[in-house]
From TrEMBL:
The entry's keywords: Cell membrane, Membrane, Transmembrane, Transmembrane helix
Residues passing through the membrane, by range: 20-40, 97-119, 125-147, 159-191, 197-215, 236-262, 282-302, 309-328, 348-367, 374-390, 396-412
Chief location category: membrane
Organism listed in the record: Brevundimonas intermedia
Keyword Transmembrane found: yes
InterPro entries cross-referenced by the UniProt entry: Chr_Tranpt_l_chain (IPR014047), Chromate_transpt (IPR003370)
UniProt membrane topology term: Multi-pass membrane protein
Name this protein carries in UniProt: Chromate transporter
Similarity comment text for this entry: Belongs to the chromate ion transporter (CHR) (TC 2.A.51) family.
Amino acid sequence: MSHPSPPDPNLVQPEPSPPPLSYSALFLRFLKFGALAFGGPVAQIAMLRRELVEEEAWMSGQRFNRLLAVMQVLPGPEAHELCVHLGMRAKGRWGGVLAGLGFMLPGFVLMMILSWLYFRIDFDNAWIGAGFLGVQAAVVALILRAVHRIGQHILIDRWLSGVGLACAAATLAGVSFWITLPAAGIAYALAVSGRRGWALGIAALVVAVAVAARLSAPGPIARASLDFVVTSPGAVAPWILFLSGLKAGLLTFGGAYTAIPFLRNDATAQGWMGDGQFLDGLALSGVLPAPLIIFSTFVGYVAGGPLGALAITAGVFMPAFAFSLVFYDRLEAVVEMDGVKALLEGVAAGVVGLIAVTALQLVISLFTPLSQTAVLGTILAAAFTANWFWKSKLAPPVILAAAGLVGVLLLRV
């Protein structure tokens, strides 16, 4: 009796492809993913991998891993970019657009509703104000934890760590990220190519600019306080909010938390909102089925009403659509070019420095004034510890809810 011969391990297996789907079925499929996108990018990517790669074989696991590595180097929320890419794989460019819209739509609609409700909350009520203040302390803790987590993945050698520290120091001195981030990318690219003298020269130039900026405009680190002054939505022009979102979307490396310094800088420096409202928006996004970067919708709503929310959201998500729609199969080849890869890694390290400074500024704002430092510090420490050890996708919303309850119990005046 003859036995079938085992498959040849050296034989190249054909790359699997998605099953045939109509445009409407594709949109509804990714709309379902968006409605279940709780727990942040790790949980969202795991859901996509489980259903579309392991169960339905839209692509091989090896290709998915390669694609994910590319998305993590590029700016933008990785899970959303994966959806756009998978949609294109199924139905071309229109499929990519529909998949991306389906994934982000549930979170966007829910954030619009919560933003509308936010302006109907009575913050003069002691219970409500105390609850939101407790939540704000927990949000700061989540940001601090994110700085550590993102830094672990990005600051993987001494040069990248040095770039991150240099950008943080320059930001504290008042140097614009329009100077520090390009310098970070160029300096690291020069360093890994062996031209370390040039890299150190660029670093020295940035230090000189930082010293000059600090001497010419001394001032406190933090510019805003955690206030509860909530007025009606502002009237910032939609095109300004679109550009603010586009800037954040193009500079979001290593996760949505890295968008925080760019949107916060615009929101607080331009007087669109205070740090308290900004943290409230982050808290709301943390309990929604959506990429965390959907907090930009709240920023746009506060600054420019519903049209402003739509404009800033379009700006934030446009790069996530564009990279996959324009490059598609060329993404892996382009990002693996040594010069491009080093440049992007250097910029990402600089962004880690920026978000670290933002976290420091928010901590200072949280403890100003000092009357409730002990309680807020306890909430922050407890939330940070819980988020460190508790890896469940339910951790962020549960931690935020618990912090709000502790705020009601201990901070109510």
